[in-house]
Every structure is written in C-alpha cells, then in structure tokens.
Amino acid sequence: MVAPTLLEVSKLGCVRGDRRLFSGLDLSVPAGTFVQVTGPNGSGKTSLLRILCGLLAPAEGEIKWQGENIRSLGEEYFTSVTYLGHRHGIKDELSGIENLRISNALNGIETSKERARSVLERMGLGGRESLPARLLSEGQRRRVALARLLICETRLWLLDEVMTSLDKGAMALIRSLIEEHLAGGGIAIVATHQELQLATGSTMRLELAT
Amino acid sequence: MLRWIVWRDLTLAWRRRSDMLSTVFFFVIVVSLFPLGIGPETQLLRSIAPGVVWVAALLASMLSLGRLFANDFQDGTLEQLLLTPQPLFLVVLGKVLAHWIVAEVPLVLVAPLVGLQFDLEKETLAVLLISLLIGTPILSLIGSVGAALTLGLRGGGVLISLLVLPLYIPALIFGAGAVEATIMGTSPSPHLSLLGAFAIVSLIFSPWATAAALRISVE
Questions:
Q1: Is the pTM of the predicted complex or chain greater than 0.80?
Q2: Residue A172 and residue B82: Cα distance in Å, rounded?
Q3: pLDDT, position A1
Q4: Closest residue on chain B to A51 (Cα)
Q5: Residues in chain B whose beta carbon is closer than 8 A to a beta carbon of chain A?
Q6: What would the pLDDT profile of B23-39 be if each residue is shown by its tens digit?
Q7: Residue A30: phi, psi to the nearest 5?
Q8: pLDDT of residue A19
Q9: Left (φ > 0), alpha (ψ -120 to 50) or beta: where does A29 sit?
Q10: CA–CA gap between residue A61 and residue A49 (Å, rounded)
Q11: What pLDDT shows up at residue B72?
C-alpha cells in the first residue's frame, strides 16, 4: 500500500530582504516520512520551516495539506502542526509542568498535572518539573520544549535545529520520538546539521544551496 | 481558551511583581509632583486635577505597553501563540484583558487616593474612578496595536509613545471632561457616554488590528 501524500509543496520560493533564498521548490511528502533539511547557514532552512508552518508567507508557490491550501485552511491547519523553533518557546518564570500544561491548553488539549509530570519524567527531567525554567540549563529547557511533542496529537512536526545543546541521551530520545511519530503515520521535517539516522520509516533528504 | 491565556499572563505578572509595582509608583509620583510643585492653591489644584490624573495614567500605561508582547516575542512563545488553533484576535483579547488587570486596574484603584491631594470632593473622586474604569480599557486596547507594530524594533519604546499617545486624545478629552464637568457642577454623563462609545469602538477594532500587526511583526 502506498501511503497517501499529506503535504504537497509546489514551486515554493522565498525572498528575505532583497535576497532570493530558494525558488521552484517542489516536495511531496507521504505519511510516515522523515524529511531531513540540510544546507549551509543562511540557505533558508529556518525560512522554509516557518513558511511550512504558516508563520511566514511564501514569495511564490503554494503549500497543500491533505489537498487543501494552508492559506484557506487558516487556523484549522494549526491543529495538524507542531513547530519548534530556535527559540524554545517556554516561559522562564513558569515551571516545566506549567509551561507544558499552558501550551497544550492553548492548543486545545487539557493536560492533567500528573500527565505533564510523567511526560517530563520521560524527557529526563524527573525531580525538576516544578522548578522555574530559568533555573534549568539550556539543554534542559530544550527538553521541556520537546516534551510538547509527547502530548500534541498533530501529524506534522516541524523541528528547527532542535538538536543543539542536547546530550547523547536526549538525541536518542528524539530519535525514538520521531520513529514513534512516523510509525503512527506522521511526518517530521527536521532542519539540522547533524545526521539523524532512523531505524524505521522512510527518509527524504532535502538539500538547500546558497 | 481565553481563560488560559489570561491565567498565563496573570501568573507571569505575579512572578514579576516589580514590573507591576513600578507602573503604579510612577503614576502615584507623577500625580503627586503637581501639588508639591504648585503649592497649596486649592482653586488651581482643583481645576488641573482631572487633566493631571488622566495624563499621568496615559504616561504610566506607556511604561507597561512595551512589555505586552516583547517578552513573548523574545522567548519564542509568541510564535507558539500565533500557531494555536484559535482566532488570533481571541489570543490578543486575552492578553489585553490581562494587561488591563495588571497594569491599569491598580491605577484606577489608587486614583481616588492620589486625587485627595488636589482637594477634590467625594463626588468628583467617584466620577474620576468611573471615568478611569471606562477609559483605561481603551488605553490597553489601542496600546496593544502600537505594541504589536513596534515589536522587535530598536527604540520601540519611544516609537510606541509617538504612535499611540495621539490616539489616546479622545479618551483624555472625554475622561478628563467628565471629571471637570462634575467640578463645575454639571452632569458628567455625556462625557462618560462618549468615553464608553469610544471604548466599545476600540474593543471592536483594535484586536483585529493588533492580530494583523503581530503577523507582520513575527514574519
């Protein structure tokens, strides 16, 4: 059986300032696929992910999710997408549990304290889940941000350089998270400089040139 | 949803109480400087009181507006808020409501106290309180548009004042006008009605404008 194509990108172009980062980008991603976006600094990896999640409007081309343009889907599209960017997207004043519960609640998923605690424990933050995030190290804060992936029920993950400041254990954890996600019919698009070898699922490589 | 965003912003404000207190102290000090500078001329003080209190409230709200979206912008939570599956104007409305509770309500509550320094009567103080209660949501609502437009710009603090203060003028005129009318012994209700109308108009339009401005600023 051929997996259905969920995400379809056609003739995508991106212009930042007066520089054209890429143009004529075509991509069709079936369910259960891992897409690794590589390329030198400034080649447009982050811009591509931001366009794919709808934060940035493309200069040209269109993006279709399950056959529908994401512009016309509007907020409905966001129920299918989780985007983790360079910046962690967690509040320093809130604890891990509070961060997780609030960001999930805003995405329409009510999370109990116990559930949040167990998820953070799996992310290796056991015992620190009630500390304000500003007391955590860079890698630990990244783990809090990644914990969202365990709760969200979205099919499309867009992860931008999430492996920075993570140790080996956390890398293995991400790998297994993505493998589980792909096995469930999801898509993960990851911008990275490090190779991420997955044991399962099909891998696509997208190389952006300057 | 609205409940969560308000709760989030109130919790954050509570964990950074000093920010909230600095706005209130600024307001109290600015208002108190006038009686000290002018001296005990009750007639003069009474006639300048409405304008002084209102102008101080406008300036105090400038202090807190810069933080409305800037902190969320810096740590990336604003992007996440933009990607939540609800209409963005609701998110904005929640943040504005929280801002009003944190930054404006304390001003409204201390206003009658600082107003005592101007030898205002009880009735006038009550009208001052009511006019601020109706008028300060306008400050948060219109201010949010300016905060969103100047997000991430250098010198945004000055820019936001230049952008927003002129838009506050109707609120200032009707708000201070209501208090003045009471001092003169006429009814403040026409002024308060116009102030209320302005509040409703800004409630209808500014969340949309802010949402659009946020999308542009985050790009």
A1: yes
A2: 30
A3: 53
A4: B219
A5: 1, 4-5, 7-8, 11-12, 15-16, 74-77, 79-87, 91, 218-219
A6: 999 999 999 999 999 98
A7: -80, 165
A8: 86
A9: beta
A10: 15
A11: 92
Cβ atoms A142, A96 nearer than 8 A? no
Instruction: Take residue A66 and report the two structure tokens written for it.
Output: 């399950």
| Distance in angstroms (rounded) separating the CA atoms of residues B75 and B17 | 19
Rounded average pLDDT over B57-79: 91
Q: 3-state class of A24 per DSSP?
A: strand
Q: Tell me the nearest-neighbour CA distance from A1 into chain B, angstroms.
A: 32
Cα separations (Å) of A151 from A177, B53, B123, B176? 11, 49, 56, 51
Judged by DSSP in three states, A201 sits in coil
Among B66, B60, B83, B96, which residue's Cα sits nearest to residue B204?
B96
Half-sphere exposure of B4 (CA within 13 A, CB side): 20
β-sheet bridge partners, residue A189? A35, A158
* CA nearest to A49, candidates A103, A9, A95, A105: A9
pLDDT single digits (tens) A161-205: 888 778 888 888 888 899 999 998 899 999 988 777 787 778 888
Instruction: Give the tens place of pLDDT for each residue, A25-72.
Output: 899 999 999 999 988 888 889 999 999 999 998 999 999 999 889 988
